[in-house]
Amino acid sequence: MHTIIRPLSPASRSRQSEVQTVESFRQPSYDCRDHAAAVKIDVYVPGVDAAGIDIEARGPDLVITARKAHFVRVNWQSLHLERAQRDYQLRLRLGLGFDYPSMRAEIHDGVLTVGLPKRALDESESALRRVA
User: Structural domain of residue 31, as residue ranges?
Assistant: First the structure.
C-alpha cells in the first residue's frame, strides 16, 4: 500500500517556524510606570549585557530581545538547564502615542531601563480626545 504525504503549504511552514522561534525565548519580568511626559519600563534580564539587547518598534508594538552570552565550559556536562538558559523576548502593545525615535535605554546589573517619551498631540488629535 502506498501512502501519499503532501508537503506543507508555505503558510503552515512559516507558522511552525514562528512557533519554534517564540518557544526559544522566555518572557522576562518587567515593571511599567506611566509618568506625565513618558513611560518608564524596567525589564529584568539577568545574565545579559548591553551588546545582547535589541529594541525594536513595530507599529504600535515595542519588542525587546535580550540574548545571553552562552559559554561552553571545559568540564561541560548536561544539567538539563536548556530552559533556564533561554534568551528573553518581551512584546508590549503600547500604541502610537509615543515618540519611538527619542527612546532612551540603559542597562545596569541585569535591569534594562527604557524611557519612552509621549508624543505631543496635534490640535486635531486633542479635539478628538475631548469629544471621545
Answer: 27-131
Residue carrying C-alpha cell 527612546: 103
Who's near 50: CB < 8 A, 6+ residues apart? 107
What percent of the residues of the chain are helix, what percent strand, and what percent coil, each to the nearest 5? 20, 35, 40
Average pLDDT of adjacent 10-residue blocks, the chain of 132 residues: 58 52 80 94 93 92 89 64 75 92 93 93 57 54
Q: What is the dihedral of CA 60, 92, 39, 69, to 10 degrees?
A: -120
Q: Strands, E, within 47-132: which ranges? A: 53-58, 61-66, 87-93, 104-108, 111-117
- Distance, in Å, from the CA atom of 86 to the CA atom of 66, rounded to the nearest integer, reads 10
Question: What is the SS3 assignment for 51?
Answer: helix
Which CATH number covers residue 67? 2.60.40.790
Q: Taking CA 114 as the corner, what is the angle to CA 108 and CA 117, rounded to the nearest 5 degrees?
A: 145
Report the SS3 class of residue 127: helix
Structural domains counted in the chain: 1
